[in-house]
Design goal:
This protein has a single domain (about 5-240), classed as Rossmann fold (3-Layer(aba) Sandwich), CATH 3.40.50.300. The relative contact order is 0.20. The protein has about 240 residues and is α/β, with parallel strands linked by helices. It has twelve helices and five strands. Helix 5 (about 110-120) crosses helix 12 (about 220-240) and helix 7 runs parallel beside helix 12 (about 220-240). It has a five-stranded parallel sheet with strand order 2-3-1-4-5, sandwiched between helices.
Length: about 240
């Protein structure tokens, strides 16, 4: 039976930010339905990312590419009390953001010194658009101006203490916390987008949030300029999260 007044959670992540692990976490809840990057097709259709994202043609063929129709789906009725949409912040491209006033918005970020080299393993020479920090700050400012509900979380705080941070997030959202959110069965999930084979190898091998390990983030010289561009945006996001 469709539920009219379900709680809608929109995660606005950047790439390589444990967003898939967080989606898997929410998928363990008995009251929650999850969607994997429903706006990805819209983003690929309307940018040159389709020329270099792995499996782009398959992605475009697999999903709705009209962003307005996707938002209508997101805001429609769903069969569970909570609906979790895993999104990339930069996928909300040239779309009316008014719907964000009525959903719970969660911005998930991570130190660009960790994001950039991880992303570059899949796509060479990433741009600021690819890694999403500027888009996330734009969304944060927009959501504040709109008076919309928004929370910012650093991925590494979840990895350091998953139970505490997920309890806090659920409390902020206004939903109960379930310990089942801390683990899942290894392997793909039915909700995975067709791009999972290119991007989800690590999370498919996992059964829960991986313990955080301090990294020696030594960036190649080729990434230093991109890192310096991204760092002020990351700092702005972190300042809001505290």
């Amino acid at each position: 039976m469709p539920i009219e007044n379900c709680k809608r959670i929109c995660l606005w992540s950047g790439p390589r930010n444990i967003s898939t692990a967080l989606m898997y976490s929410f998928a363990q809840r008995p009251d929650t339905l999850v969607f994997d990057e429903p706006l990805y097709g819209h983003y690929l259709k309307n940018t040159d990312a389709k020329t270099y994202h792995p499996g782009a043609d398959e992605v475009l063929a697999s999903m709705e590419t009209n962003g307005e129709k996707v938002i209508q789906m997101m805001m429609g009725n769903h069969p569970k009390e909570v609906v979790f949409f895993k999104n990339m912040g930069h996928h909300l491209l040239n779309l009316d953001p008014a719907f964000m006033r009525t959903v719970c918005n969660v911005i998930l970020t991570r130190d660009p010194a960790e994001v950039i080299p991880s992303f570059a393993k899949e796509i060479e020479n990433p741009s600021m658009l690819d890694i999403g920090f500027e888009a996330q700050v734009y969304l944060l400012n927009l959501l504040q101006e709109m008076g919309a509900e928004v929370f910012v979380i650093d991925s590494n705080t979840i990895l350091r203490n998953p139970e505490n941070e997920l309890e806090k997030l659920c409390s902020n959202i206004g939903i109960p916390f379930f310990k089942d959110m801390l683990s899942w069965k290894p392997g793909p999930r039915p909700e995975d987008g067709v791009w999972a084979k290119h991007w989800y190898k690590n999370v498919h091998a996992s059964s829960g949030f991986q313990p955080y390990k301090e990294k020696e983030n030594i960036l190649d010289d080729a990434f230093q300029a991109l890192y310096q561009k991204a760092l002020p945006f990351y700092k702005q996001l972190i300042e809001f999260s505290q």
